[in-house]
Amino acid sequence: MALVEKETMHISLSKAWGILREKCRQLPAEAVPVQNSLGRTLAEDVIAGRNVPHYNASAMDGYSLLSALTAGATPSSPVSFAAGEYEWVNTGGEISARFDSVVMIEDTSLDRKTGTLSVVSSLVAGENVRPLGEDVFLGQVIAREGDRVTPALCSLLATAGVKNLRTLALPKTLYIPTGDEIIPLEEWLELETPPPGRVGESNSLLVKGYFRNWAFPVDIAPCIPDDPNILKSFLEENRKKYDLILIGAGSAKGERDHTFSVLEDLGHPLFRWLLMKPGRPASAADLGGCFAVNLPGFPMSNAVILWSVVFPILQLLHFGDFDEETVLPLAIGAAGTEEVTLLSSYSSTYGKEEWVRFKCVEIGGGKKAYALPSGASALWSLSETDGLSLLPLETAERTKGTTVNLWLLRDIRWKERILFQGSNDPAFERIATFAKKKGGEVIFRSVGSLGGLAALSRGECHAAACHLLDTETGDYNTSYIERMFGPQADALLARRIVFFRQQGIMVRKGNPRGIRSVSDLRREDVVIVNRQPGAGTRVLLDFLFRGENIDPGNVRGYENCSTTHFDAGNKVLRGFADAAAGIKSVADALGLDFLPLAEEPYELVYFKSMEDHPGIAALLESLNDEGWRSLVDRMGGYRWTE
Amino acid sequence: MALVEKETMHISLSKAWGILREKCRQLPAEAVPVQNSLGRTLAEDVIAGRNVPHYNASAMDGYSLLSALTAGATPSSPVSFAAGEYEWVNTGGEISARFDSVVMIEDTSLDRKTGTLSVVSSLVAGENVRPLGEDVFLGQVIAREGDRVTPALCSLLATAGVKNLRTLALPKTLYIPTGDEIIPLEEWLELETPPPGRVGESNSLLVKGYFRNWAFPVDIAPCIPDDPNILKSFLEENRKKYDLILIGAGSAKGERDHTFSVLEDLGHPLFRWLLMKPGRPASAADLGGCFAVNLPGFPMSNAVILWSVVFPILQLLHFGDFDEETVLPLAIGAAGTEEVTLLSSYSSTYGKEEWVRFKCVEIGGGKKAYALPSGASALWSLSETDGLSLLPLETAERTKGTTVNLWLLRDIRWKERILFQGSNDPAFERIATFAKKKGGEVIFRSVGSLGGLAALSRGECHAAACHLLDTETGDYNTSYIERMFGPQADALLARRIVFFRQQGIMVRKGNPRGIRSVSDLRREDVVIVNRQPGAGTRVLLDFLFRGENIDPGNVRGYENCSTTHFDAGNKVLRGFADAAAGIKSVADALGLDFLPLAEEPYELVYFKSMEDHPGIAALLESLNDEGWRSLVDRMGGYRWTE
């Protein structure tokens, strides 16, 4: 059918919005029962067809009577009412036409034998009466077109007898996961060890989650295989039932990527490929009364297209329009905006808008941020993100110290948060949960022992930790710190040994390569994975190599670096390497065998001037927390200083 | 059983919170399937039990191969790979152990006959590979205790194979409406004319609405009658199944108000009666593992106790604590706070905290507000509220111009909003919906023609409207305006006749009292309802009385005032009066008969300097809107000026 034209391929998001604006029209308003109207938007003014209350009602429990007869009544000179001259009325009860006011029970006494009521206060006409129409009168505008139905309005409309409301229609959306490699979620969650090359169907949770946050309904179809005929007939069947169909994956440029061809076949393509990263392989089509969007399969790309294409379409179908300034922050659920300066430079791809995920912290009175991993498939960094930015097409490099505007995804407690940069230790990182309960928040960035001290010296973190062996003296850390901070180091810095930890060599269970000592690491049949330059563990390994006269150039895998103990241990576990230097707790956690080499102090370093920072205070207090300490003890390979 | 002690009766909200804090403990954490975890709060750190990806995966569709063999490949000197030296791999597919990189399809050409692949770019090891554990590695802390499950985290946890999560328990709540006068909602909505003394069960919509906004579940029980035994056995049956039971009504001090006695009977009362307005007749009790709260029956009181008692209890059961500073704005869903100055003084009840509902507007650069009707049963004003304030116990009178801090319930477009004060006209008020579409928002306050001009002269509104007959000259408005604004009136003010409207006498259908002229209004058997002093309609009536030499003192009902045409017409319709002066459109809308007396100009007045205000501009533009004009024409009794 219609071939997509050049000007609708590889286009900017703003151009895609222009196309959508032209094609997607507001759905006709729909009637909903008042009971189900919460959160809906009214499509017309609502005029009261009834008075509320619809009779003269008592505002309290008491006796209705004629106010004129109470004139002059006081506690010392009560006025008596014979039976028949008053009537008991409950709160909300109807007041007889012959009475005009209600006396509260506390201002009366009733002689039960004679039925005489003594009244000790004088009333005016209408006292304690809720007259007919007091809340809403017949003919009144109760609510206007465009108003959202709040709990109060919903209850008010029901009270006023409004049975159905004309509201803006909620678009009906279907999400279809596709792919031969996809395992249905329920099955996936039961798998002990999932087969390689297969993945769980988890994008539907992203879709459901955002739709729920947006208060739009969405149905999830079962996953369909990579077969254009099946996809085509499934779309043909469903395009009559839905206003919007989202197709997951099959969107790149490979053997199985037939989604777009099917859309071309069935309807009129609107655009294909966006100048956006991630999110490039997105497309949209008009299937005739139903719109289709192809969402890329990687989760971050999937999320990005949900925000920047799907949400704007929903706005068009529901409201008839959207505001280009606010549609993206609304879509991502931004809690606000913030201008931050970059803690590290960031290279962006020129010619593409780029979504960047940032972690934030306030240091030295300034709000700072650094980018988290940027991959299309990096879901963890989306989950960790404090703030998002969509860098413009023409951005190439953002250098350290330049400003970026973020949409904040959470409420950041700036004053309580600290950034830790330094040596990676999985036991130490568990302290964050305990510090949080003491009013602090600790963000960890593993940059190695030397990297941490350097960041601290540049004022780019609140605390660092290191375990750097001085191979001349056999001492730890002191000489490195003095070199970095100069002669005032002692005056400026506080140092505290967190614990001693076992360093050694991690090998697979049963030690299949028979590695017994450091010298075995130079063997031809042994491949190691190393840690990054500046890591204390690498410093230790280099020292041990020198002791054995081993030339690192002769060690296989010496140049392969991991930045954490877990990552290194993991590579050994999965057979990508035979050995790695690392700590005992990680070997234990991964079920690896461990050859101890040394015990080293893991030392926390921070500026003394920072001691009153709620984050530092909470961190220091947590070092003695029994809960954290027993968790560390259970991990193994740690010894306390006292 | 245990009698409630003195210090738990008639107490402040803050004291009630102290009692609740002591008694309501956090519920034990509960496991939920990851698919249902969206929005839940984690009760423990989540550690990855798996790598994500769990194999070396391709980041794109392409050919996997050994990067070393691509050295030097360029478009002009491609490198050839024989069949078997490469392998096709889909995005996300597994890369064989013998390969270390993936070349993108665009950088290759395949000879399908020989199976030879030409590669035109050189790769490095790991290129286009998502290594094992790239996103999340086995042993990594994925999320921490206290984190909320976002769409991204939910999807990430599923991807990492986390099947169940320990999360903070959601309290199970049951709401029980009570009262013999209550009609079930479904039945109520079917009633053409509801019987006096009966009301629809609509508070459950308030309860459901707030619980939904708070993301806590709630079940609604069928309404039970005013019978302590039924209530008691119903509570006994349900207190084992719920953490919190809310009982609607039966809370005042009357014949049917047995709820508290039942609570005393079944458990240990926590408090009764709050020093709060509305919301006083609230109580709470500990039923042994289940808490009960008695919500007053009037909707505003019901809402107030939901916010200030129920929501804090939910926070205690869920989070184990709440913050006294933020719990109320959280409960009401405040969009922010704002300091405003009062446009009218407000009298508060000394010795009670008082919830006041405000309507806001920006005039003369300052943010202002006036109180809406304050009754416990006034649901319309809750629905209309822009901002809420809880005035402290010791507040007596807040005079005009004093400041009040509001919790804003909506996002106010301050720059586009105008306040209209003046003569009431139901057709004119319908213009707001049309002005909104033109970028303005008009708030109406009916204060009568004279009241509007006075407010305008004091800078307390943006626009006014009047229809004031000068009984000396027969002219309308001019002499009143000159008296109010002095000789510069013409220079300062813009005037525009909106339309001419029919004034007359509204009587019941068929005119049962046989009223033929103004002079009939002085008859012994005729009772009128009047409009408030300063209303143009009253000025007209007084003028007509003078013409007929009628002494208002001899007109029955002359002192009974309504502030709107609809209210006055309504009183006639329901038989509380026999006649009222008013406009034809209202008589038509209410199905009343109408005796025409005069046609009058309804004139809009505003400062010329305000013409550029987006609200004034939208209002003026809307005066010519075809949609509004045809709506006015359908209402009847109006004539356009041109």
UniProtKB/TrEMBL annotation, chains A, B:
Its cofactor is Mg(2+). Pfam families: MoCF_biosynth, MoeA_C, MoeA_N, PBP_like. Its EC number is 2.10.1.1. Residues 174-316 form the MoaB/Mog domain. Pathway: Cofactor biosynthesis; molybdopterin biosynthesis. SUPFAM superfamilies: MoeA C-terminal domain-like (SSF63867), MoeA N-terminal region -like (SSF63882), Molybdenum cofactor biosynthesis proteins (SSF53218), Periplasmic binding protein-like II (SSF53850). One of its GO terms (cellular component) is cytosol. Keywords: Magnesium, Metal-binding, Molybdenum, Molybdenum cofactor biosynthesis, Transferase. This is Molybdopterin molybdenumtransferase. The lineage of its organism: Bacteria, Thermotogati, Synergistota, Synergistia, Synergistales.
